[in-house]
Amino acid sequence: MMTAASIPAASARGYADYLDAKTVAPERGDYYLGPDGSPAEAPGRWLGDPAALARVGVEAGELQPDELRALMAGRRPGKGEPVWLRAAGPDGSRAGGIDVTFSAPKGVSVAWALGDDRDAIEAAHHAAVEAAVDYLRESVELTVRYDPALGEAVPAHAAHLHAAEFTHTTARGVGDGAPDPQLHSHVVITSVEREDGSVAAVRSRPVMRSAREVGAYYRAHLADELRQRGYAIEPAGEDGRYFSIGGVDRAAERSFSARTEEVERAGREFRALHGRAPERGELRALAVQTRGAKVPRDRGELDRAWRETGRRVGVDRTSLAAARDAEVEPAAAVDRDGWAERVERNATAKRAVFGAAELRTVALEQAAGAGLAPREAVGAIDSLRRDGRVLDLADGRMTTARVRAAEQEIEQRMGEMAGDLSRSVDTAAVTAGVEVVQARLGAPLSVEQREAVQALTAPGRAAVLIGPAGTGKGVVIDAAASAERAAGREVYGVAVAGRTAQRLGESAPALEGRVRTVDGFVAAVEHGELSVDTRTTVYVDEAGMGDTERLHKLVRTVDERGGSLVVIGDARQLPSVGAGGMFERLAEQLPAAELSEVRRAADPAELTAWRELREGDPAAAMAHYRAAGDLHIADTRVEAVEQAARAYDRLAGELGHERVALMSDASNVEIDTLNLRIQALRRERGELAPEAVERADGQRVHGGDRVTWTASMPVADEPRVENGVRGTVVGVDAEQGALTVRLDSADRDVAVAGEGIESLRLAYAGHVYRQQGATVDRAVVVTGGWETSRESAYVQASRARHGVEWHVAREDLDSPDDAARIDALARRMGQTRAQEPSLALPLDAPGRAPGDPIAELHVARLQPPAPTPPEPTPAVEIAP
Questions:
Q1: What is the mean pLDDT of residues 157-161?
Q2: Residues 523, 525, 527, 530: is their CA dihedral positive or negative?
Q3: How far out from the chain centre does Cα 869 lie?
């Protein structure tokens, strides 16, 4: 993988000292340890064109520390008066550069630590780093140039980079424990040389945005280098984005990550107990407490510690050599057809429409497992377009034939279903359905709700219900489903997430016991467990969260059997995780009923803030929350998380856990931190039983804990528990590792043991995606990071009847004062992450020439040179 981080000017000297003092000597492949177990000093090396390096005063190859410090400071190395190479910034300082870190897959590091081929593995790693840095220069606009026609500076590619590589072979040490092997290089890019010969600082944002693509190039090149040295390479990780190395299985990789994971777990537990991150001394103490083996004092002891770990998992020099020397089937060496299919599938894994950089990234990610060198993978991209797998769109972006065909089929089938007037729900049945719901509510339906029920039960096998959060869509669905049942028809409710389907059954009792996930419903129909025919209607809740692939399967399944579909949602709320956007398109083309009156909250100011967030005016909404005292700003994200956890704990104590939502739009790590902190606060008060069952990751679940399922769980002779369902632990058998959980949705206890324990998580906090469709009394939100969006902010605000608390961190909002930080927060809340179907864009005219210069460059590189070119043409070289 590759990561990137800016090095501020004030930190440049200290960072250079750190890199120089922690480096492993690359020519020996040895890990040098001093008497205290710390790495000994060893030099790094300069990367880049020797002539370009000479122009800034350094000699290619081994670097001297003072040279690096000088270039990071923006001056030419040497004594005497400073010779400045690049201009200072507005504040008079010069940025230190960018640290781009390339880290080998864990299996490669294990092979380096235990095998007899350290020199060769390091050589492969260095070659991959050098090639990736060159690719970074080619593919990313790292500087600017003045454009006379525009009269301003525009992004431009650099002619050369001034970069230094420092190779480390262990994960960062914590305390006195033995570090895990981790082969990686820090590449510090201090500056660039422009085409005109001037020296300039590096533009950091493009580097960070390119991290995934350049990291994929590094891995593909590393895999190719290792393959040439006899190692077997297999795809690994999610969607085959990474690779594993022959002789090192997943168990071995985990064993050599155990030390790091152990200390990280101890750190999480510390934060849970104390509500803050451990200080340096406390972290050292945690490391000592978790250490289970003698601390290595020299390189020999470290190697012996690694060999002992390898022995336990069956990996040693002999097994690695045997795996390296094993003959690989030629047919398996290069899998171009499999590569093309995986690229087509993964290019639209997240969005239906993508650009050239995304396509290159996916092509590179799939190259290692397919046996393609990175230059071959990028060069082969145009073949995907020629073969019709990738389609050019009119605005220069692309989609895949697979997604385009699925979208077209959804649109065609739903259009034809809407025009098929064979469904019949008579007036008496509609009246009966409405009366059932009014009796349950003890109040009449509004005019717009009645009209919506009429629209959803009108002739036509497809319809749409649109409504902002809190407009009572569940009431309308309940009345329409009740009408269908009164007419003798069968009804089902489905949603992408199990928890959403469960909520649908709760808000629409006519569907109780008839709700499933989309995947579960389609599978049940295909296997004959459920019957769909011309007298069946399926209600799809939160359809905007439905990705195209799922909706395609559902629409085809229902239509082929003559059933009817009603899709319900709001395009302004959270979009699908995968390629989607079809709900909004269908809403524009099919008969639709729309609700507008928000009933969830009574405070007019709160309702106004919801509308402002929904319509893209977050500045006004945040002004309301700040004036109301509901916007809390902490210095750090850790402090914001602690404040939110305590706010939730207080509210849950007053109202009950089921009536308060604690949400984050950030990573699962933050969700786990919030959950563990709430659990610790409850344990302090004695609200949880001391008995607990421990999951494989060390998380403990106690009696009384709130839990949720992260995967569906089959239950013998009973309906399975769906992903997202919540409950409370009412029984613990610590000896057997078993729990009894009482589900929120029904008077039902479920026994959980074995693999089922691993699908449970604490449920005090959840990601915003798990909260769409929920209604609570109060909500507490942690937000403000790069993940924040218009859709997530609107959903977070609109869950609660009686108000929401926002918790943000100053460090996430880089601005001079709190007023400016709130403006920065509003800008993030104004950015939409809505999905866009490819059908929103016409196809480009046939015969369009390839438009990706990076891919074209690789295609040209792969062609054999003409025997006698008429004139020499300057070309950009790509490292092999």
A1: 96
A2: positive
A3: 48
- pTM of the predicted model as reported, rounded to 2 decimal places: 0.86
pLDDT at 29 over 60: no
Q: What is the CA radius of gyration of the chain?
A: 30
Instruction: Name the residue with tokens 């026994």.
Output: 751
How far apart, in Å, do the first and last CA atoms of the chain sit?
19
Dist. CA 413–CA 656, nearest whole Å: 46
β-strands 726-733, 61-62 pairing? unpaired
Round to whole Å and give the CA distance between 334 and 275. 51
Query: Would you say 381 and 344 are in contact if contact means Cβ atoms under 8 Å apart?
Result: no
For residues 61 and 659, the model is more confident at 659
- The β-bridge partners of 824 are none
Domain 604-829 -> CATH class = alpha beta
Question: Any residues with CB less than 8 A from the CB of 879 and at least 6 apart, and which?
Answer: 127, 130, 131, 134, 135
Q: What is the mean pLDDT of residues 418-422?
A: 95
**Which amino acid would we find at residue 799?**
R
Class of domain 405-594: alpha beta
Phi, psi (degrees; rounded to nearest 5) at 235: -65, 150
User: How deeply is 434 buried, as exposed, middle or buried, from its count of CB atoms within 10 A (0-12, 13-18, 19+)?
Assistant: buried
> What pLDDT, in 10s, does the model give residues 196-226?
999 999 999 999 999 999 999 999 999 999 9
- pLDDT confidence of residue 653: 96
Pick left, alpha or beta for residue 594 (phi over 0 → left; psi -120 to 50 → alpha; otherwise beta).
beta
Of 84 and 687, the structure prediction assigns the larger pLDDT to 687
- Encoding tokens for residue 225? 């280098």
User: pLDDT-derived band of residue 259, with 50, 70 and 90 as boundaries?
Assistant: low
CB 338 within 8 A of CB 370: yes
The C-alpha atoms of residue 218 and residue 132 are separated, in whole angstroms, by 5
Joined together, the tokens standing for residue 795 give 């959903």
Give the residue from 368, 383, 295, 378 showing the smallest Cα distance to 335.
368
- Model confidence at 301, in pLDDT bands (50, 70, 90)? confident
User: CA 398 to CA 379: how far, in whole Å?
Assistant: 17
Query: 741 phi and psi, to 5 degrees?
Result: -120, 130
Q: List C-alpha distances in Å: 80 to 16, 95, 199, 314.
A: 21, 22, 21, 59
- On average, the pLDDT of the chain sits at 87
Backbone angles phi, psi at 702, to 5 degrees: -105, 160
Kindly list the distances between the CA atom of residue 528 and the CA atoms of 523, 552, 810, in Å, as whole numbers in the listed order: 9, 19, 55
Q: In 90-212, which ranges are E strands? A: 97-103, 143-147, 152-156, 160-170, 181-193, 199-200
Question: DSSP secondary-structure letter at 840?
Answer: G
Which residue is associated with the tokens 């639709």? 592
- State residue 481 phi and psi, 5-degree precision: -65, -40
Cα 209 to chain centroid distance, Å, stands at 14
Beta strand 160-170 with 181-193: parallel, antiparallel or unpaired? antiparallel
CA–CA gap between residue 679 and residue 464 (Å, rounded): 42
Nearest-angstrom CA–CA distance, 352 and 546 = 13
Mean pLDDT (whole number) for 634-642: 94
- The answer for 618, left when phi > 0, alpha when psi is -120 to 50, beta otherwise, is alpha
Q: Which helix (H) or strand (E) holds 806?
A: strand 804-809
Report the sign of the C-alpha dihedral through residues 46, 50, 56, 57, in that order: positive
Rounded CA separation 492/536 (Å): 8
The pLDDT of residue 850 is 52
Cα separation, 49 vs 59, whole angstroms: 10
Of how many residues is the chain composed? 880
Q: What percent of the chain has pLDDT over 90?
A: 68
| Tokens 């590619």, residue located | 157
Q: Is 401 exposed, middle or buried (0-12, 13-18, 19+ CB in 10 A)?
A: middle
